[in-house]
Every structure is written in structure tokens, then in C-alpha cells.
Amino acid sequence: MGRRATKKTAPPKATRERRPARRLQGVDPRVLAGQLYELHARAERSGDQGYLERWPGDGETHGVLLFTQVHADRLKGEAYERAALLRVTLAEWLRQQADPLQLRALDDARGAGVRWDQVALALQYIGTDGEPNPSSAFNRHASLKVAVHGGPEDRRQPHVARIIEARAVKEELERRERERAEDARYPAMDAAARALLAHFQGGEILGDPDDDFWWDELADVVDDRRDASERANLVVYVRGAVHETYAYARRTGQDPATSAQANAALETAAALVDPAGTGD
After folding, report:
1. How far apart are CA 171 and CA 96, in angstroms?
2. What CA–CA distance (Å, rounded) separates 273 from 237?
3. Which of 142, 96, 89, 268 lies closest to 196, judged by CA?
4. What is the 3-state secondary structure (H, E, C) of the chain?
5. Tens digit of pLDDT for each residue in 186-215?
6. Please, what's the b/e burial string for 12-28 (b: 16 or more CB within 10 A of its CB; e: otherwise)?
């Protein structure tokens, strides 16, 4: 007797909780509109009907969708199929652009004291009893939060909005803690930045004559640190200038500084921006 074939187990299907939210990437609506125009232009040349004179313009996304839907049957075969798929993508792009606008409108309405049942009426979420369904309006608001503020891995389920909000709170707390830590060491960072600039402008610190970007930026911002966020951000410019100097020194085989004082200023700044000593 031959060996009985074993039935292969199909991989588990992604549940609604595991499927990632769809989000179009790299879509330029003007490019899509231009491709639609070309498809219709080629069809028009064969029919010579002149209807493209009423083309709404590539930047009028909604108008392009309406126009190409009305005139869809002017295309045949592969051109018809291609245009239909372009309309699918363009419509999805337009729908996704509306999400943050609707979320802001809902936030404004709620901030003004509008009740959920009033929101439900505006969205026409009406139950079989003819009454507005406030829970549907609430869930729509929550789903929009996920769509707008969530990551690619987040499903657009209402309960996920609470995860998004908790994540945003955590990120904000972490940002404030970073600012607090950077602000506490701002006097040392400010002194290091000014010492670096003095030695660089005095020709004692090596600079790439073709790329002084970070040095130029540092010189522009060092006197313009007004609030905690700006003071904390000074480390970005100091780090950029220090790394730029060391990288150019390695590429050219030169010393990064020509005096002991300038070298000490570089080392002090490097220790501030890279306290773990992980390198340039």
C-alpha cells in the first residue's frame, strides 16, 4: 500500500487584529492624473472628439475622478483596464487625504461642546429606530485617530485609538525628559559651542573647504536659543560640527586641530555629544 498523502496545513490567516492598516505610499496624484490624461489623449486622437478640452487639470483630483468616470467608456481594452486601476488608486489617495481633515473637524466640534448624538446626525449614523447612534460616531472618531496618528502596523479599530493615545503620551514624556536633560547641560554645551567656533574661525580646527554645512549652521544658531526645546537642540549642531571635522581629518590624513587648545575644545565637545564614547 502506498504512503497516504498528508494534507498540508494552511498558514493561519491574519485576523482583523493582526492585519496592518493600508496606507498608500509614494503616490503623487498629479502623476496619476497625468497618466489618465495620456490614456484619454491617445484614445481621443483615434476618435477626434475634442472632449479633453474640458479636462479639469491634473491638480483637481476630485474633478479628474469625475471626468474620467464619465468618459471611461471612451477607452477600450488594456487602456480601459489601466485607467480603471488608476482611478481606484486616485480615489483611495483622495479618501485618505480627507481623514485628517475630518478628524480635525470632529475634534473642533467636540472641543466646542458638540454632543456625540449631534455628531452622529452630521455623519448620518442613524439606527433602525430613526435615532442617532452616538457610539458609531465615537467609534468613527477613534478609528480616524488610528488612521491619522497610527503606524503602518496599527489596525483601524476603535480600541486601538487608546493605544495610540498612550503611545503619544509616552513619547511626549520622553521628549520632555530629553529636553530637561539637555537643558540642564546647556551651559556646558553653549560654552563648548562657542569655544569650537572661536578655534574654527581662528583656523585652528580643520574644516572641509567644500562642505562647511554644520559649522555654518552652528554659527547661525548659537546665539538664538530662546526656549528649552531650542537649547536642547544645540547638541545636534555641535555634534554635526564635531563629526564633520573628525570625518574630514580621517579622509585626508590630517590632524583635526593645529593647537592643543583647539584639540582640547574638540575633545570636550565630543565628550558632551557622545558621553558613552561610541565614536564619531
Report:
1. 25
2. 10
3. 268
4. CCCCCCCCCCCCCCCCCCCCCCCCCCCCHHHHHHHHHHHHHHHHHHHCCCHHHHCCCCCCHHHHHHHHHHCHHHCCHHHHHHHHHHHHHHHHHHHHHHHHHHHHHHHHHHHCCCCHHHHHHHHCCECCCCCECHHHHHHHHHHHHHHHHCCCCCCCCCCHHHHHHHHHHHHHHHHHHHHHHHHHCHHHHHHHHHHHHHHHHCCCECCCCCCCHHHHHHHHHCCCCCCHHHHHHHHHHHHHHHHHHHHHHHHHCCCCECCHHHHHHHHHHHHHHCCCCCCC
5. 889 899 999 999 999 999 999 888 888 999
6. eeeeeeeeebeeeeeee
Cell 468613527, located at residue = 140
- 65/38 Cα distance (integer angstroms): 14
As a residue count, the chain comes to: 280
Question: Is residue 12's pLDDT more than 60?
Answer: no
Q: Is the pTM of this model over 0.85?
A: no
Which three three-digit cell numbers place residue 17? Answer: 487584529
Q: Are 145 and 165 in contact (CB under 8 A)?
A: yes
Over the chain, what is the mean pLDDT? 82
Tell me the three cell numbers of residue 161.
485609538
**Which amino acid would we find at residue 48?**
D
**Does 264 score more than 80 pLDDT?**
yes
